[in-house]
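Backbone Fold Data
Goal — fold tokens
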Amino acid sequence: MKKSNEPLTMPLHPMLSRAFDILEPLFIKHVLPESGHKLLASSEYWEPLLATLPNSARMVRDRMIEEWSSTKKGIQFLSPAEKWDQLKQHLKAVYGRDSTVKRMKNMDSTEKERIESWPIEVVFRYTYPRLDINVSKMQNHLLKSPFCIHPKTGRVCVPIQAETVESFDPFSVPTLPQLMKEIDDYEEKDPMEDGRTMNIRKDWQKTSLKQYFEPFQKKFLEPLQKELRYKAREESERKAAIIGDF
């Protein structure tokens, strides 16, 4: 497997090529503009980006900085998406067959490959999903099960509904100390439910966890339980049919 700090090789592997086709539109929409990461929205951001270009493409870097910083009519009104397209076209002129930009003499294939892969590496750097190996192998990182507790923050790992993904705030989920206090406060108001008598309400029903558990129960646990009962009954009827026990 390729390490994240290794340069890409061309031609691009089909898997990475497909990933780039998916990720570049998202990169243009969410990373480049003022409303996103502002990567090509102002010189404060695009100059550090252009500084990462291979040295053999320095003429492109200098030209882009000059043009994008110009006050000439029309140039300063290029959108971040147009700047990105312009940058790629100029780079293509260096490693490709176009003659828009004068190529450096005696540029070897390795340098051309570095220039060709640079836009792809930039897109991947900002958008390609990253996996922390410890999340997969260490037990205290396994937050895949609903309602487990994060060991450092004490926050509860809660299931969410598809329709609330955009509005979900991970910092608003209850913490373990908060839930304990909510139970104590509830039982203080109703001494009959202090744990020494039969609970009328389950502990989770006394807390803010209720808003997460009830949908989880209705949309996942109950349908799953129903499906398991159906399969068990179906299997029982199948066995009865085989032995003739009706």
